[in-house]
């Protein structure tokens, strides 16, 4: 009977919540918050705002867009290809950063490299900017760590050149027309080596302070945009290392030692054993990063590295507890010790419909294909939540690859017409949105209003979820 009532509740709010929160449990438990999010969407009318901005005649906007296109086709597409062909993994992207910052310095930006004590993070401030909206452009450039070779299987190689095209086109417009405002480019390394993401570290160190909006691009297998609300692209994550300690011995007399590798193997077995008692939306993924040095020595140290994921942080805490207990049980069963070492986390961010819809409309206007009409699940603009909870922003996602994410096929598409076309479209659309944000006070007001109201609902959302995940009583 209780299950029928829950399903009935979900059915009642489904039309409202179709693009709200990710799971039926979230939508049912937080039905009042979802309703208020729906009321906010009606008030903001992001679709109407997008129609007004993108269909209006604007010679200045069109000139900015044309300049971004020209920069891409004459200079920055080649830069993107060059970075693609020279992949560098996180915190080692020195060559890529050198290429990006040299170009920015040549286009009237003052650059500081090594911000937040991260050697390949940088900020670039337009030196001719004036008081007014501070337009943030976020760029990434790290490659994936591959088993055969490092590679740009997520097309981060293009994100810098795309952002530079939009940043310079808009900065030049501000100076040329005397429009109040400035542009700040922020280079964020090692996106693929989270958690914690470098953006979170930089945010905590104040690097994003003073921005009024942030934009970024990312590769995509479709042209799409997220729904407004709370979310993260890749679920809420806890990154945890489980370090097992034993005692060494000769493998001919293993009873004289305690095998830490056996403990890790038992740990993985324990995790598999609890999966049926964990909600199906959870993802628990681990590797053995250390397992001994020689086959004739009982390993006295072994390490498992896990990402533990769930669509919200409330139930994630329960999953994390179960995984931690599975590690403790493995240690107890094998006579070893385990040290549980969390090293980072990612949490839901805020997705702003007023920005999402305008970005999506511009991407379509400039020719994007393989369009997904329905908004996808909510996700903060910077994928990982922390910055997007404090700063409104948007990601641009035109179709740039027919391969899957993190594949060699996606890297190949970065160098061909599929990628080149999508990247150019993202640069043009980004320039158009930044132009509108700088020149249209009504647009800025809508963004601030929606962002502030959504942020205010987030605490109510988490409070509503807590009773939805009762822990069974054990008698």
Q: DSSP helix count?
A: 14
Strands side by side in the biggest sheet: 1-2-4-3-5-12
Through-space gap between termini: 24 Å
Envelope shape: globular
User: In CATH's first tier, which class of the largest domain applies?
Assistant: Alpha Beta
Mean pLDDT over all positions: 93
The secondary-structure class comes to alpha/beta
Query: What name goes with the CATH superfamily of the largest domain?
Result: Zn peptidases
Q: Largest sheet at a glance?
A: 6 strands, mixed
Name given to the CATH architecture of the largest domain: 3-Layer(aba) Sandwich
Radius of gyration: 24 Å
How would you spell out the order of helices and strands? Answer: HHHHHHEEEHEHEEEHEEHEEHEHHH
Strand content: 15-25%
Q: Count the E strands.
A: 12
Low-confidence stretches: 1-18
Helix content: 40-55%
How many domains, in number, for the residues?
A: 3
CATH topological fold name of the largest domain: Aminopeptidase
Outline the structure in words.
There is one protein chain. This protein has 14 helices and twelve strands. Helices cover 46% and strands 16% of the residues. The protein is of the alpha/beta class and 475 residues long. The protein folds into three domains: 2-46 and 459-468, no CATH class; 62-229 and 351-458, 3-Layer(aba) Sandwich (Aminopeptidase); 236-346, Alpha-Beta Plaits (2-Layer Sandwich), CATH 3.30.70. The strands form three sheets. A six-stranded mixed β-sheet has the order 1-2-4-3-5-12, with helices on one face. Strands 8-9-7-10 form a four-stranded antiparallel β-sheet, covered by helices on one side. A two-stranded antiparallel sheet has the order 6-11. Residues 1-18 have low confidence and may be disordered.
């Amino acid at each position: 009977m209780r299950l029928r009532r829950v399903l009935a509740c979900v059915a009642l709010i489904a039309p409202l919540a179709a693009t709200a929160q990710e799971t039926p449990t979230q939508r049912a438990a937080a039905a009042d918050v979802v309703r208020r999010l729906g009321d906010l969407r009606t008030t903001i009318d992001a679709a109407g705002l997008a129609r007004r901005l993108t269909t209006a005649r604007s010679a200045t906007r069109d000139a900015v867009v044309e300049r971004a296109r020209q920069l891409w086709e004459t200079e920055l597409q080649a830069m993107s290809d060059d970075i693609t062909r020279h992949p560098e993994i996180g915190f080692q992207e020195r060559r890529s950063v050198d290429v990006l910052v040299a170009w920015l310095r040549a286009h009237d930006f003052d650059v500081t490299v090594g911000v937040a004590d991260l050697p390949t993070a940088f900020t670039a401030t337009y030196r001719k900017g004036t008081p007014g909206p501070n337009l943030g452009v976020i760029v990434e450039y790290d490659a994936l760590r591959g088993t055969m070779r490092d590679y740009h299987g997520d097309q981060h190689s293009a994100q810098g050149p795309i952002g530079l095209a939009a940043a310079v086109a808009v900065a030049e417009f501000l100076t040329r027309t005397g429009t109040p405002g400035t542009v700040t480019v922020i280079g964020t390394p090692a996106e693929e080596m989270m958690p914690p993401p470098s953006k979170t570290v930089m945010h905590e160190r104040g690097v994003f302070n003073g921005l009024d909006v942030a934009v970024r691009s990312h590769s995509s297998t479709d042209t799409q945009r997220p729904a407004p609300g709370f979310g993260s692209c890749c679920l809420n994550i806890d990154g945890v290392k489980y370090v097992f300690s034993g005692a060494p011995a000769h493998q001919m007399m293993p009873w004289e030692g305690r095998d830490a590798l056996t403990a890790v193997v038992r740990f993985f077995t324990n995790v598999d054993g609890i999966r049926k008692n964990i909600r199906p939306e959870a993802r628990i993924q681990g590797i053995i990063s250390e397992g001994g040095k020689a086959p004739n020595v009982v390993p006295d140290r072994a390490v498992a590295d896990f990402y533990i994921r769930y669509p919200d942080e409330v139930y994630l805490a329960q999953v994390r507890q179960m995984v931690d207990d599975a590690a403790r049980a493995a240690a107890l069963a094998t006579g070893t010790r385990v040290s549980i070492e969390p090293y980072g986390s990612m949490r839901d961010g805020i997705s702003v419909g007023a920005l999402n819809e305008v970005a999506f409309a511009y991407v379509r206007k400039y020719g994007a294909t393989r369009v997904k009409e329905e908004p996808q699940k909510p996700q903060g603009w910077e994928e990982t939540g922390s910055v997007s909870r404090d700063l409104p922003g948007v990601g641009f996602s035109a179709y740039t690859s027919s391969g899957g994410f993190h594949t060699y096929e996606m890297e190949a598409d970065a160098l061909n017409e599929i990628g080149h076309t999508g990247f150019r479209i993202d640069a043009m659309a980004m320039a158009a949105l930044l132009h509108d944000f700088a020149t249209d006070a009504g647009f800025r007001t809508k963004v601030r209003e929606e962002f502030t109201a959504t942020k205010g609902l987030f605490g109510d959302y988490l409070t509503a979820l807590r009773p939805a995940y009762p822990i069974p009583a054990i008698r």
